[in-house]
Design goal:
globular; 25% helix; 126 residues; single chain; six-stranded mixed β-sheet
Amino acid sequence: MNRDDLINNYWNDVATQNAERLSTYFTTNATIKWHDSNECFNVQEYVRANCEYPLEWKGEVERIEHTGDLSISVTRVWSSDGTISCHVTSFIKFKDNKICELDEYWCEDETAPKWRLDMCIGKAIK
């Protein structure tokens, strides 16, 4: 399986909170870092944090780039009820076709701040 397929399958299992499959993407001693909340997890902790998070989720990978053993993905994740929408930029380091390091930066989607809207600059991406 190529890395694009691995990343797309991984994000599908993140969104569906598939604990059984999620752990199979990682090496035994992988580290997962969520820089926006200053947290570092091992695989078991990461699976628990992801799969015990409330609500049902959907996800869509918007972009994947590769350089050497590092892949970068940008993914939109949103709650099925539409109350939460986030984008996550992930730096994924692979070893033997498994994730050995995952650095993620999450941000909640929101409208531009009033001060920029008042400037009448920019336009919506979508």
